[in-house]
Design brief:
- The chain has helices spanning about 15, 30, 45, 65-75, 85-95, 105-110, 140-145, 150-155; strands spanning about 5, 50-55, 80, 100, 115-120, 125, 130-135.
- It is about 35% helix and about 20% strand.
- The termini are far apart.
- The radius of gyration is 15 Å and the shape is globular.
- The chain has 8 helices and 7 strands.
- It has about 160 residues and is an alpha/beta fold.
- The chain has one domain: Aconitase, domain 4.
Length: about 160
């Protein structure tokens, strides 16, 4: 597991997935080809399942496209930890089953190279050897994440 650390605020959806590809990339593998290309050109070749992204405030601001969250979920990003999130990105992440953890203190404490782990059921974010508590996710939210997103959860609960 690796941490992809972006020490900046206002990482918008165009930095996560350039808008110029919105209507030409319709599948998750096509989206991944352009994921974070303007922010971190090496991301798509270095990201592995279970990796965590850490960033500043207002992560995911900008347009309401689903591609950034779909792409991050598809490549196996375990969680995005940020000082704060744009509401539209937050909602999109629930739809895709991508875990977001808001913890300004953890982001400030993080030093590149530190190990990071997240336990959403217990509400514990661990950076190096220090724990940063956050409200444990409710059972329904854990179920949505485990199902791989809201649509999968709805299908599974109404079958």
């Amino acid at each position: 597991m690796a941490v992809h650390y972006y020490d900046q605020n206002d990482i918008n959806t165009d930095l996560l997935f350039p808008g110029k590809y919105t209507y030409t990339c319709g599948t998750a593998p096509e989206i991944v080809e352009h994921l974070l290309e303007d922010l971190d050109p090496e991301f798509r070749s270095t990201v592995k399942p279970g990796d965590i992204i850490m960033a500043g405030s207002n992560f995911g601001c900008g347009s309401s496209r689903e591609q950034p969250t779909l792409g991050l979920k598809y490549v196996g990003v375990q969680a995005v930890v940020a000082k704060s999130f744009a509401r539209i990105f937050y909602r999109s992440s629930i739809n895709q089953g991508l875990l977001l953890v808001q913890s300004p203190e953890a982001v400030e404490f993080y030093t590149p190279g530190d190990e990071v782990s997240v336990d959403p059921a217990a509400g514990i974010l661990k950076v190096a050897e220090r724990e940063f508590p956050f409200p444990p996710l409710p059972a329904e939210m854990l179920s949505i994440l485990e199902a791989g997103g809201l649509l999968n959860w709805i299908k599974g609960n109404n079958a």
